[in-house]
Amino acid sequence: MEINGIVLSPDERLRRECAPIEEITPEIERLASHMKQEMFENAGCGLAAPQVGQTVQMIVIDTSYTSREDYDPYVLINPVIIEQSDRLTAFSEGCLSIPGISCEIYRPDHVVVEAYDLDANLIRYEAAGDLMCVCLQHEIDHLKGITMFERLDPAAHVIALRAYQDALARGAKPGETGAKPVETE
């Protein structure tokens, strides 16, 4: 299922390991442009290719824009986490493919990522303790077929899944994060 151009969980395309991009072609450049547009229109800060139905290793990220004028996402092709800290930090995450909820996810608080840009230059990104750090990991997870649901313990997974189904029933759209699901007694 798709809403506003975004593939929604539990669509099988979100569960697939994505193929590496072997060559930067005009088709890949168009995909990057399309992803930037979809991310902006859905008020996201990160988007992975499978979230627009393409199972290739590309993500776009902009965690600091406030308007169209300062919107300038990074395009990361074949991104790989090459270093990460052992220290885990909780962060409330939302996902364009899982609208209407946010979940507390524990992730390393420091990562170093290598990827290629659209000019085939190898670029290194380093982030620690901020939204960029979380976003890099979240989007790279998508390229491995992992959603935030898989990062939850079994009880939290059930609670989050129920909250997500309720959010969809209420008409949640990509970009709406809603409240963090809480365990009911």
From TrEMBL:
Instruction: Decide whether keyword Iron is in the record.
Output: yes
Q: Which Pfam families match?
A: Pep_deformylase
Tell me if Metal-binding is a UniProt keyword of this record: yes
> Which SUPFAM superfamilies does UniProt cross-reference here?
Peptide deformylase (SSF56420)
| UniProt-listed Enzyme Commission number(s) | 3.5.1.88
Q: Which residues bind Fe cation?
A: 95, 138, 142
Coiled coil feature spans: none
Biological process terms in GO annotation: translation
Entry's cofactor comment: Binds 1 Fe(2+) ion.
Which top-rank group of organisms is this from? Bacteria
Which keywords does this Swiss-Prot/TrEMBL entry list?
Answer: Hydrolase, Iron, Metal-binding, Protein biosynthesis
Annotated catalysed reactions? N-terminal N-formyl-L-methionyl-[peptide] + H2O = N-terminal L-methionyl-[peptide] + formate
Positions annotated as active site in the UniProt record: 139
> Which molecular function GO terms apply here?
metal ion binding; peptide deformylase activity
- Tell me, what does this protein do in biology? Removes the formyl group from the N-terminal Met of newly synthesized proteins. Requires at least a dipeptide for an efficient rate of reaction. N-terminal L-methionine is a prerequisite for activity but the enzyme has broad specificity at other positions.
Give the family per the record. Belongs to the polypeptide deformylase family.
Q: Which NCBIfam families match?
A: pept_deformyl (TIGR00079), PRK00150.1-3 (NF001159)
Q: What is this protein called?
A: Peptide deformylase
Gene field: def
